[in-house]
Amino acid sequence: MRAPKFADIEQAHERIRSSVHRTPVLSSSTLNRILNCELHFKCENLQKVGAFKFRGACNAVLLLTDEEAARGVCTHSSGNHAAALALAAAMRGIPAYIVMPRTAPEIKKQAVAGYGGQITFCEPTLEARENTLAKIAAETGATEIHPYHNFDVICGQGTAAKELIEDAGPFDVILCPVGGGGLLSGTAIATRAMNPSALVVAAEPAGADDACRSFHQKKLIPSVNPKTIADGLLTSVGELNFRIIQRTTDEIVTVSERGIVRAMRLIWERMKIIVEPSSAVPLAAILENKLDVRGKKVGIILSGGNVDLEKLPFHEFV
Amino acid sequence: MRAPKFADIEQAHERIRSSVHRTPVLSSSTLNRILNCELHFKCENLQKVGAFKFRGACNAVLLLTDEEAARGVCTHSSGNHAAALALAAAMRGIPAYIVMPRTAPEIKKQAVAGYGGQITFCEPTLEARENTLAKIAAETGATEIHPYHNFDVICGQGTAAKELIEDAGPFDVILCPVGGGGLLSGTAIATRAMNPSALVVAAEPAGADDACRSFHQKKLIPSVNPKTIADGLLTSVGELNFRIIQRTTDEIVTVSERGIVRAMRLIWERMKIIVEPSSAVPLAAILENKLDVRGKKVGIILSGGNVDLEKLPFHEFV
């Protein structure tokens, strides 16, 4: 699979522009004072379905031919990509078949169903998920849209950084979280083209640090038993994503669980917006001095805002 | 005290424009689908100090002569106005003397102190607050800035509706909460001038319904023992504010505590932003069918986002 160029991200942006929110870029003078730098937050938590994932899903769905579209799309996911694909499909009026583990949180099942996704439950193993998905794809002829190892998805995710740089750039540093690497690879391609002097840095939970280890050892090392509160970042980096990251990303740093919760709380309290733990990982890297941003202008992509209000983590690390 | 005209709000806007955030206007297609109308939320929870109050405080502080400014400003408040005045004063480099009841929540004391306010604590009675304030004003020569019964404050608060209508108007209905009436009176003056066909409707907690009763009985009736989770709306309507409201507002409706919490939760979950209970009062009016907005385009001012994350109310009305 070839890697996208910036021109592909520009085309994706034209394609999805009228379907996605141009999310605001917010800043907090208090946070800037505390952290001694100038932070600009791209609020993809305010994107449709509450996550940047809608950009990539939307781009992939809009690129289907009418014939392909008529057969629908499918994926296996228990997270934001499932909801994003369901909504993108609903907006084109086509079916979305979503394979979810039986054990997925009720709130995620409701979200996918609420956007009109047709859910098939399976056992909570990767094998069961892949087998169930293969069966559905064979039966329906639906096109599988992978959450990150997908050219069109990467192009869609890259539009968040493009908007961030257009609206508040240029920056000294661009920071985003890394899980499967869809957001990071798109972000890095856009930044290299639009703001070449900026450092592209990704942050990852120490408990799910496959991207960091892969990056530094220069070979793809999948996660084994990842564990982190940042549930959007449990997946291992995709092959295409890793190839892009290797040649476009300057650094990947890791953060503690305590740092993630502290950063999440700081964003809730100071910026008055709801972010999920995954979104707080880049700010945690600054809080934990994993990179030096003193006096620098930093763009941070807040990836999503889907949390269960019944299970807030603020007491876990007091 | 004369009532402001729209030209006064326009001048206030020019004056404070570079000091305040032009907060985003957000919408949610899911909320629109659920409620069968088109809602546009002016996010003053994302304003500096997390509340629209910063607009009025800023306008009042900027209007002081250099001589007045040198002696500082003062007020008694345990809420957002205290923090707003402290920050507005700090930005002009002048002292802010804030009288707070000893019993004010720790989080509010920290906020005021964090913005550089000089706090004097007093007993938690209106008499003690007023006496303490009078003493400080006499000692320091500081100018008292009342939180709502103040011409310049009303002009500042009116700039939120002005921006809302500029950015997303015109509307069929403009909705805001009412406590002391600073926001409502400014909002109504701006709306009457810019969007004269819009209905101006205010929403108030049934447990602190002095504005609603005063409005319908056409005379000022102060609150007696108001009680509501919407702590920003406990104050009674000011005299100047009531005079303006009487001739500019179309309706005032009341909502239940349960409705406030439901609306607050809906905003948190669907819009991914943090609002305090007072902010949720207008949406509660729609949820409880206190006004008919079916098929209509509605602008709602979200007044603030200062909540104690340790004490969230979502379990109180399950």
Could you name the key traits of this structure?
318 residues; homodimer; alpha/beta; globular; 13 helices
In sequence order, what are the helices and strands of chain A, one letter per element?
A: HEHEHHEHEHEHEHEHEHHEHHE
Distance between the termini of chain A: 46 Å
Number of helices of chain A: 13
Biggest interchain interface, per-side counts: A-B, 23 and 23 residues
Classify the secondary structure makeup of chain A into a structural class.
alpha/beta
What do the pLDDT scores of chain A average to? 95
Query: Could you tell me the radius of gyration of chain A in angstroms?
Result: 18 Å
Largest sheet of chain A: 6 strands, mixed
> How many strands of chain A?
10
Strand order of the largest sheet of chain A: 1-2-10-7-8-9
State the low-pLDDT regions of chain A, or none.
none
Q: Tell me what portion of residues of chain A adopts beta-strand conformation.
A: 15-25%
Helix content of chain A: 40-55%
Q: Please tell me what the overall shape of chain A is.
A: globular
Which quaternary structure do these chains form? homodimer
Short description:
The first copy, chain A, has 318 residues and is α/β, with parallel strands linked by helices. Chain A has helices at residues 6-16, 29-35, 53-62, 66-71, 80-92, 106-114, 126-140, 151-168, 182-194, 210-217, 239-248, 257-271, 277-287, and strands at 25-26, 38-43, 73-76, 96-101, 118-122, 143-144, 173-177, 199-205, 251-255, 297-302.
